[in-house]
C-alpha cells in the first residue's frame, strides 16, 4: 500500500468514526514512555478480522493516545474498550474524541500510569503498540497476572510491531503461551519483519 493511499485511508476512517487521531506526538516521551504514534487502520482491520475480539470482550489499550484503537475495534467488533493514557495533553484529545466518536458508549478513557492501574476483572483482551520500555512492560504484566489469578479467564494479549526484547521476555513468562502471529508485512513497503501482531494467551 502506497503512502498516499495509507494517508487517505487514515483520514477516511477518522471521518467515519468522527474522531481525530492522526499525527505523531513525542512532546512528553522519554526513555520509559514512548511517543504517541497511531496504529495504522490497515493493521487494525487485520486484528478486527482475526476473530479474536468480539462483543463479549473487554479490551485495554495501553498508551491509547487519542483513542484510535479503542473506537475502531469497538466499531468493528462491538467490544468494550478502555484506553489508558499517561500524558495529560494527549488524554484530553482522547476525551474530546469521545464527545463525538461513533459508539462512544463502548469506549472509556482513564488517565493513569499503566504500572499503577489495577486491571478490572472483566478485561480479557490487551493491546500494546510499544507504549513503554521493557521494564514497565514487566510491571504491567505483573498487574495483568494479578487480575488473572483473582478471576481466572481466557486472556489474550496483542503486541503490534513488537521489539525483539519484548518477544524474548514474553517467551520466558511461564503463564504465557505464544498463540498466533498476524502478518502485516504486505501492508507496507520494505518487508519489515516487525510488521506483525504477535498474540499471546494465558495457559
TrEMBL record:
- Biological process per Gene Ontology, one example term: methylation
Domain Methyltransferase span(s) in chain numbering: 55-126
**The UniProt record lists the keyword S-adenosyl-L-methionine:** yes
Q: Which domain of life is it from?
A: Bacteria
Task: Write down the InterPro entries for this protein, in alphabetical order.
Answer: FAM173A/B (IPR026170), Methyltranfer_dom (IPR025714), SAM-dependent_MTases_sf (IPR029063)
Q: Name one Pfam family in it.
A: Methyltransf_31
The answer to keyword Repressor applying to this record is no
Keywords, alphabetical: Methyltransferase, S-adenosyl-L-methionine, Transferase
Q: Which GO terms describe its molecular function?
A: methyltransferase activity
Query: PANTHER family, from UniProt?
Result: METHYLTRANSFERASE DOMAIN-CONTAINING PROTEIN
What is the protein name for this chain?
Class I SAM-dependent methyltransferase
Amino acid at each position: 500500500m502506497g503512502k498516499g493511499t495509507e494517508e487517505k485511508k487514515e483520514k477516511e476512517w477518522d471521518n467515519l468514526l468522527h474522531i481525530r487521531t492522526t499525527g505523531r506526538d513525542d512532546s512528553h516521551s522519554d526513555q520509559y514512555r514512548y511517543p504517541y504514534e497511531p496504529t495504522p487502520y490497515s493493521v487494525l482491520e487485520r486484528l478486527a478480522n482475526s476473530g479474536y475480539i468480539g462483543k463479549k470482550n473487554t479490551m485495554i489499550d495501553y498508551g491509547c493516545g487519542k483513542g484510535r484503537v479503542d473506537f475502531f475495534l469497538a466499531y468493528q467488533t462491538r467490544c468494550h474498550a478502555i484506553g489508558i493514557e499517561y500524558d495529560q495533553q494527549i488524554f484530553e484529545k482522547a476525551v474530546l474524541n469521545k464527545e463525538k466518536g461513533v459508539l462512544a458508549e463502548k469506549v472509556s478513557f482513564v488517565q493513569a500510569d499503566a504500572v499503577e492501574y489495577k486491571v478490572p476483572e472483566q478485561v480479557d483482551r490487551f493491546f500494546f503498540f510499544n507504549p513503554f520500555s521493557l521494564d514497565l512492560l514487566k510491571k504491567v504484566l505483573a498487574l495483568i497476572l494479578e487480575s488473572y489469578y483473582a478471576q481466572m479467564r481466557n486472556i489474550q494479549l496483542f503486541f503490534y510491531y513488537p521489539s525483539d526484547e519484548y518477544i524474548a521476555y514474553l517467551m520466558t513468562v511461564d503463564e504465557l503461551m505464544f498463540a498466533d502471529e498476524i502478518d502485516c508485512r504486505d501492508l507496507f513497503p520494505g518487508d519489515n519483519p516487525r510488521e506483525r501482531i504477535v498474540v499471546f494467551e494465558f495457559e
